[in-house]
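User: I'm putting together notes for a lab meeting next week and I want to include a structural view of one of the chains we've been expressing. I don't have a solved structure, so I'd like a prediction I can at least talk through. The sequence is below, exactly as it appears in our construct file.
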Amino acid sequence: MDNVTGTPEEPRPLRFVNESLTAYIDKLGFVWISAEITQWNTRRGAVYGTFEEDGHAFSFSIWQGRRPVLPDPLPKVGDQVVAKVTPTFWTKRGQIQLDVVEVRQAGIGQLIVQIEERRQRLAQEGLFDPDRKRTWPLLPQKIGLVVGVQTMAEQDVKRNALARWPGATFEVVNTPVQGADCAPQVIQALERLEADPAVEVIIVARGGGDYRDLVGFSDESLVRFVADMTTPVISAIGHEPDHPILDDVADYRASTPTGAGQVVVLDAIREYEEIQRQRRYLHQTVHQFLDHEHERIQTLRTHIAHPDALVAQWHEQIAHLREQLAHIVLRNLDLHRANIATLRATLDAISPNQVLERGYALAMVNGDVISSIDQAPIGTQLTVRLRDGSLHSAVLATVPTPPLESHTTPGDQDD
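Assistant: Thanks for the context. Below is the predicted structure for the 415-residue chain, given as structure tokens.
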């Protein structure tokens, strides 16, 4: 006989189930488990994520006060860990969650290792080189979109792209975005869009999730297919922490589907507003220039209508300039005359003729002035120049000048 609590006539309230489950789960106490981290997010000091092992998965939380129990460096998605946990039943949501008390590193998930080895091998082949990246038009008329069925990712891409360029159109191909069929179906969708000459750029988009759900976008056949395409491809897989290999080979990596919708087209509305602003500036500048030139024309027209006044104005300007020029010339002449007089007085002061006027004479031998008796031995023919003429003579004798005697005062003599 079934063990039934309550009757149709006297049913138990729903909280009875919650309270019973809570009491039962609380009896389990602490448990050491081994698992792989498939999600890891930090929010307001706490950590929220998912443990997974052999197809079994549980959400977990590490409250802010227990952050010190985490190893250094922090675990990440794909890591194998050993954790001390206590199951907790959340009665409002009817969900079981694991509260983590302690975590220890146990290794790196095998799937993560395989993906990173594949990434490095393809990088060495040059599939991710920048010179392989293709560009797309600023305002593509038709955008290919590979995305899941009825997903927020599709809505995010379209909403953001159309907000920036209302003239854009989309060719959407819905495919599985996780599981075994993901990579083959995405390749088929890309083949279809590549064959359409109207498609100018293709977006492959998916929302965030468990890294195991994204492995299809690291499939080697998909990565190689994208590398050989001629149509530019934008990868928008997951969120910022997610990084499948498709991101590396794509021509552009958007961190989210929203980002893909924003980058795929130029912000036409903002550019239109900028064009309008520049047009107003150009219109204002041209009108200011035309107004200025109109004023000049009016001035010239007035002068042409009254040429006598214009000629009289020019005569007045010429007379004024002539007066200024005469003043400048006379002033310069006076300055030069004064300068010449100064130079003449200087020359006169140092002229030999002035020395001769004071009774001195110049002795010359063969036209050269001498200053020592050593230059005129006895018998030398001399020419002696005086103030009013010259004398021709010969040296009969030479008398050296005696040295000056030293004169001292009695006070200077030694005692």
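A couple of points you could mention at the meeting. The domain at 14-108 is CATH 2.40.50.140 (OB fold (Dihydrolipoamide Acetyltransferase, E2P)). The chain has a mean pLDDT of 84.

User: Perfect, that's what I needed.
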